[in-house]
Amino acid sequence: MKRLLILAVPVAIFFTPSLALPSEDQDTTVVEQFISKQAKQEDGEEYVEARKMLTGDLNRDGVPDVAVLYTIEGQNGTNNYLQYLAVFVRAKGKLIPAAHTVVGGKHYRNVELQSVSNYVIRFKTLSYRASDPASTPSRKGTARFVLIKRKLKEL
């Protein structure tokens, strides 16, 4: 019996991480489908390398949700870009889109997703001063968002 246990434990440990991957893959697929649909509607494309995803409870149900910062650029053939925050909540083990909003973009502000804690999504920001060139915002700041009744609200 001890031999069986000694052999079974390493096998269980080895295969357990792979059981978590399908959920992560499913989450990524849900996010990618959502962003792809929006990019198509805007006649733009996602700047995939800029995407950042963080998990944390956002709807106060004790289950980790997902906050995603992503950028869509080139709308209608322009050199514009917009940064969006999308929130996906977990229902019955699967992610579903809950809300999204513009949080940054060209001539507005650049945002960097920092953390998700205590139901709040936190960003570092760089906003434009009147004296800044169009490509270089310089005013440092922060932004915070919360999910309230399937809407994102900036605090």
Describe this structure in words.
The chain is α+β, with helices and mostly antiparallel strands and 155 residues long. The protein has one domain (2-154). It has one helix and nine strands. The chain has one helix at 2-41, and strands at 45-46, 52-56, 65-73, 81-91, 94-105, 109-117, 120-127, 139-148, 151-154. Strands 1, 2, 3, 4 and 5 form a five-stranded antiparallel β-sheet that branches. The longest helix has 40 residues, at 2-41. It starts with a helix and ends with a strand.
Strand content: over 45%
Structural class: alpha+beta
Separation of termini? 59 Å
Query: What is the radius of gyration computed over CA atoms, rounded to a whole number of angstroms?
Result: 20 Å
Number of helices: 1
Please tally the β strands and state the result: 9
Overall pLDDT score: 87
Q: From N to C, what is the helix and strand string?
A: HEEEEEEEEE
The shape is: globular
Uncertain segments are 7-22
The largest pleated sheet is described as: 5 strands, antiparallel
Helix content: 25-40%
Q: Please indicate the count of domains.
A: 1
